[in-house]
Design a protein that fits this description.
Fic-like fold, 5 strands, about 5% strand, two-stranded antiparallel ribbon
């Protein structure tokens, strides 16, 4: 990291690690998060557009018989995109397949961990604030049994780390020394707890920026920092449910994501970061609304296809919309029927063109997939 690339700004500036100069290296020393930000016209316009999109998102899913379906679906989209930013290759197909009894490789396990951590965090923020105790707990969940498990899950780093490059000297960015973390995280936690007049989306963007800049753990900082975006907006009341999956935008515009964060560190260009973040919110909120409408149309069509059928096949429609892969054993457990009864129900769904049977795996329960649901969920975002 070259100190000449960094200016002193209200967000921080370059410094050096401890020790003799010939052995020290350049680091970034963040300052306390500003408690007020002056927005220029372009950023104010982006904020208004993002807030309107969030407002429309509040009403999405009302056409669905069970609107909570969307939460399950969008949590998994967020998990896939956030982990892919870090290099995993898992797809939604892989995740749903694993959840219905299919194979689980290392990449899929990382996604499953992210889903578990997000649900765990959602349960917490419904009644309690975001604290470092929660952050440590979620970090442990994210790294359980996957790459990085040997890097002290749940414990703050006690040695330097860096982003891009083989060592601090060649790195693109070197976070503050571990000796600075206690003070930096105390300020970060206070920023979340204080009653500020700052718009929630601006506050959320600054929260994410500072967490990624502090980089408090050896591994998993990116995944955890993006997970905190949803938790912050839920706890703040700005988002009614986990319907926003901004990591999909970050994944599609990955270089711009890193450049916007780095621009704040190097030049104090918070406006560019805020506009990028607010654009992510707007685009992904509109994408969520569009997918919600398509799922509602498909739900109505499924029910029409089964309108003349007797039995309990219609009871699985909600399940298939939220989790398009399903096994015979899962039907047994969900409906309390025999394996033979479950097979009969699934054959009804197949006859209606709602599911198709997957290739049999010896020793495993038969599995089925709702292909039309997967098409909607996997369709590329704009």
């Amino acid at each position: 990291m070259d100190s000449h690339d960094f200016q002193e700004t209200i967000f921080g500036g370059p410094g050096r690690s401890a020790g003799p100069r010939e052995f020290s290296y350049c680091v970034y020393l963040p300052r306390s998060i500003p408690r007020s930000i002056q927005l220029d016209e372009a950023t104010s316009s982006a904020l208004s557009e993002a807030d309107r999109a969030i407002g429309r998102l509040h009403g999405s899913g009302r056409r669905l018989k069970n609107p909570m379906i969307l939460s399950d679906v969008y949590i998994r989209r967020e998990a896939i995109s956030s982990t892919r930013i870090e290099g995993t290759q898992a797809t939604l197909d892989d995740l749903y397949d694993a959840e219905s009894g299919g194979p689980v490789d290392d990449d899929v396990q990382e996604v499953i961990n992210y889903v578990r951590a997000l649900y765990r965090g959602l349960g917490h923020v419904q009644h309690s604030p975001i604290t470092m105790d929660l952050v440590r707990d979620l970090h442990t969940t994210i790294l359980e049994g996957v790459r990085g498990e040997d890097k002290q899950p749940g414990l703050l780093r006690e040695r330097p780390n860096w982003i891009s490059g083989s060592d601090p000297a060649t790195a693109e960015f070197v976070p503050p020394p571990h000796t600075e973390l206690d003070a930096g995280l105390a300020d970060w936690e206070s920023f979340l707890a204080e009653d500020l007049l700052m718009p929630p989306l601006v506050r959320c963007a600054l929260m994410h920026y500072q967490f990624e800049t502090l980089h408090p753990f050896f591994d998993g900082n990116g995944r955890l920092g993006r997970l905190l975006i949803v938790l912050f907006l839920i706890h703040d009341g700005h988002l009614p449910a986990p319907l926003l999956y901004v990591s999909s935008y970050f994944e599609r515009h990955k270089r711009e994501y890193y450049d916007a964060l780095q621009g704040v560190r190097q030049r104090g260009d918070v406006g560019a970061w805020l506009r990028y973040f607010l654009s992510a919110v707007t685009v992904q909120a509109n994408d969520a609304i569009r997918r919600s409408d398509r799922l509602a149309d498909l739900e109505e069509e499924f029910r029409q296809r089964l309108s003349g059928s007797k039995g309990r096949a219609h009871e699985l429609i909600d399940n298939l919309l939220s989790s398009p892969y399903i096994s015979t054993q899962q039907v047994v457990q969900h409906l309390g029927v025999t394996p033979q009864g479950a097979d009969y129900i699934l054959r009804q769904l197949r006859k209606a063109g709602i599911v198709r049977e997957m290739r049999r795996v010896p020793g495993r329960s038969k599995r089925w997939v709702a292909g039309e649901v997967m098409e909607i969920l996997q369709e590329d975002s704009p």
